[in-house]
Amino acid sequence: MAQNKGQTFPVLDNPDAVYTADDEAALSRQLKRSWAAAGVFAGVTAAALMPTIAPRIQWATMLVTVTLGGLGIFLWGMKVTPVLAYRRHMREIHTGLSRSVVGRLARVNDGQITFREGIDCYPFVVNVGAADDPKDERLLYWDAQKPMPEWQIGDMLNITAHGNDVIALSVRHGDGVLS
After folding, report:
1. Region of residue 148 (phi > 0: left; psi between -120 and 50: alpha; otherwise: beta)
2. Closest CA to 150 of 173, 119, 126, 131
3. What's the rounded Cα separation, in Å, for the pair 173 and 179?
4. Is the model's pLDDT at 74 over the cut of 90?
5. What per-residue confidence (pLDDT) applies to 10?
6. Which of 67, 105, 69, 80 is nearest to 27 (CA)?
7. DSSP 135
8. How does pLDDT run across 114-129, given as a tens digit for each residue?
9. How far is the C-alpha of 68 from the C-alpha of 63, rounded, in Å?
10. Measured on CA atoms in the order 166, 162, 123, 136, is the torsion positive or negative?
11. Rounded to an integer, what distance in angstroms lies between the CA atom of residue 58 and that of residue 17?
12. Tell me, what DSSP letter sits at residue 76?
């Protein structure tokens, strides 16, 4: 792995890597926008509370606090938390142990998205041993924010995975062509 200047996590040296330096830069921009929006919301909340606190209008203070507090919790959960979860995911896949798996693509659950550790993923199964032996099947996850690879059932896959998350992939189609 190589550490690029100004990055918060290293970028894989593997040319088949799923995540690139551009992904980290886009994530950083999205996180800055989320923090800026949270700051603006906090400012609006403070500005809305000031006219109710100074003259001690208790019912208005409670109304503004409950309304903007609920909205703040909703926005935090819908806008900021997913970005923080993706940043945690990106950091973990680059700092933890990874392993290589070579196997044949057995199943892909097209259109089925699994929510795992705050990240949307597509599950798929690779058989790493004898064909059609369920003992040799491995469940792996493809990041739903990345375009799906051009693979077909039966293609040989060379996968680098962190846990069950794919971080690098090369596909050898049934005709032997590597993509």
Report:
1. beta
2. 173
3. 8
4. yes
5. 47
6. 80
7. G
8. 999 889 999 999 999 8
9. 8
10. positive
11. 57
12. I
Neighbours of 45 (CB within 10 A): 17
SS3 at position 7: coil
SS3 state of residue 100: strand
B/e letters for 74-95, b = 16+ CB within 10 Å, e = fewer, are: eeeeeeeeebeebbebbeebbe
What is the Cα–Cα distance from 11 to 4, expressed in whole angstroms?
Answer: 7
Query: Both tokens of residue 21?
Result: 């330096």
Residue type, 124: F
What does the alpha-carbon distance between residue 130 and residue 147 come to, in Å, rounded to a whole number?
Answer: 29
Mean pLDDT of 71-100: 89
Query: In the chain, what is the greatest distance between 2 CA atoms, to the nearest angstrom?
Result: 78
Reported as a pLDDT band with limits 50, 70 and 90, residue 29 is very high
- Strand (E) positions, 97-178? 99-108, 114-116, 119-127, 137-143, 156-162, 165-172
Under the banding of pLDDT at 50, 70 and 90, the label for residue 133 is confident
Using CA atoms, how far apart are residues 69 and 156, in angstroms rounded to an integer? 52
